[in-house]
Design a protein that fits this description.
Length: 276
């Protein structure tokens, strides 16, 4: 790229490579790579593909952050969206970041973030992805609410599911956002609720391999919050599920390897998943 900075396609491929790198890095490494993406974007603000890869990198950064840092990254995503509101994929990545933020927040702040998701969804009401992210945000909110307050949130969620759940694109977007939601949740009961929602999409779309994969990843996220003595049983069930859906095992293993590259001390715990 340094030799051929005037060739847009090379800049695009460089941006894509940087974004791919953010997927497998820890938070500190990811933040540095996103800074490189930002420099590249500043030089090529008129190239839509580079804007999208930068937005994707920002979303990937939110996945591993705590609430305060995630809020800052989401602010960058929203600013990017304001500049490029006509690029729908940036709206999707902004919604992804908002879901991560909602999952990390308390009830009051989560409700405000869901309102931001709703505004974004209304601006792109004809696209299934932002609607799926809004549904995931409502799941995050309902998990934090009292039973009385939860009723209204559940009604809004059921309304979205009743209208869109049978649409594969919505179901994939919703299920994928639930993975990020579960990753941020700290209570086992919350993740069980999220897993139940993911299972609901799998029941509606049993042959959709993307939903099969994200259901497995949501299930895996449950083990990150379980008591140590409960994890072996969950892993046995997860391994049995993956054997039934063998086509997604290679991608699942890739995701597992990425996680363990950041947490090598946990490799022995997940040994049953290496026997697939």
């Amino acid at each position: 790229y340094q030799k051929h900075a005037d060739v847009p396609e090379i800049a695009v491929q460089y941006a894509k490579g940087l974004c791919n790198l953010t997927v497998v890095q820890d938070e500190a490494g990811c933040a540095k790579t996103v800074s490189r993406l930002e420099v590249l974007y500043q030089k090529h603000t008129d190239v839509p593909e580079i804007v999208v890869w930068y937005a994707s990198g920002l979303h990937n950064l939110t996945v591993g952050q705590d609430e305060a840092d995630c809020a800052k990254t989401v602010s960058h995503l929203e600013a990017l969206y304001q500049k490029h509101a006509d690029v729908q994929e940036i709206a999707v990545q902004c919604a992804n970041g908002l879901v991560c933020l909602a999952a990390a927040q308390d009830e009051t702040d989560c409700a405000k973030t869901v309102s931001r998701l709703e505004t974004l969804q209304q601006a792109h009401a004809d696209a299934p992805e932002p609607t799926g992210r809004l549904a995931a945000g409502l799941v995050c909110l309902s998990a934090k609410q009292t039973q009385e307050a939860r009723a209204g949130t559940e009604a809004r969620l059921e309304g979205l599911l009743g209208t869109h759940a049978k649409q594969p694109a919505f179901a994939e977007a919703y299920a994928g956002a639930l993975v990020n939601c579960a990753l941020h949740q700290t209570k086992e009961t919350e993740i069980h609720q999220t897993l139940s929602r993911s299972r609901q999409m799998l029941t509606l779309h049993p042959e959709d391999q993307e939903i099969q994969l994200v259901y497995a990843m949501t299930w895996f996220n449950l083990t990150l919050r379980q008591a140590e003595d409960a994890i072996p049983a969950t892993l046995r069930e997860l391994a049995a599920y993956l054997r039934q859906h063998a086509a997604v095992i290679p991608e699942f293993r890739k995701q597992l390897d990425s996680y363990l590259s950041r947490h090598p001390e946990q490799r022995e715990r997940y040994q049953p998943l290496f026997e697939l």
